[in-house]
Design goal:
By secondary structure, this protein is mostly beta strands. It has a domain of 77 residues. Helix content is 3%, strand content 35%. The strands form four sheets. A ten-stranded mixed β-sheet has the order 2-18-17-16-15-14-13-12-11-10, with no helix packed on it. Strand 10 and strand 11 form a beta hairpin. About 23% of the residues have low confidence.
Length: 305
Amino acid sequence: MNSASSSGYPQYATPEDKTPPCNNLECCQGPGGFGDSDSGPNGFSQPDVIKSTKIQLPRGVIGSTDPVIASPQMVNSLLARREYSSFPIRYFNGEIRLVVEDLASLGFGEKWGHTRSYSNKLTRQDMGDNGNSWFIKELPMAASRTIDGEDPHFGTIALMGVIQDALWFEWNESEEKYEPQFYVKDQLVHSGNELFHTDTRGRTTVFYDLNANPSLAGRFKWSRDPYGNQRIAQYADETFLLQSVEQSGVQDEITVTAKYSYEHYLDPVHWGMIKKITLAVKRGEAAEKNMRQVEFTYHTCYELF
């Protein structure tokens, strides 16, 4: 249980106005660099003092006393999706939908962070880098449903971020391309050793292909928003564990970098589970400042919590 104290890919035409909603790390967010303490999940009233959020969630079993179940933002979001009750349970199959935002930041035109989603209707419930059956929206994964022994790219591929909102693509052998399913208009292309996903807003997400090292196959590699901002993932050479996701931009002729750094448990029981995520910001030649942090702890079903 988890508890937390390029070329060769399709391009959509981007909107005529390519100016990001906010490409300034300080505008609209108050004087704290990423906003003051009242500006929501991105607020940092003391940017040079690290803030830690500890989240208590089981690694695979959701406790009824979990405070995130009562989150107003989540309840409102689910009420808008009429397929779910306000508890939140999907009416037709009893699937639990939990979407929990642990960490977030603005400043490069689009929101980024660490958002977990949970389902109790998976083929296997004992997998996940952030706890059993938990997926990470900002670190989507590509998975294949082909038969063992066949090329995993010639079949059905699912792209999973928020697990209930997975995108499905079917390989069309006669036309040698992927066809989006269920009225989706996005595109998926396999080029070289990468999978390129492009949505109708012009956002591109790149994955390691499914024949890569098993520790990297289908994992998030980099993404680019419609305004040209890139987010690049770095993995450790030997363990292949995610080390960081970094994004840079220019503000007032100064290069500004926002970096999410990941620490993992290395003990035999929880090996590879995310332990801590730290958001740090660097402006020009100034020293990097830790802005906010979220920390996770894990326990098994035999442990009290």
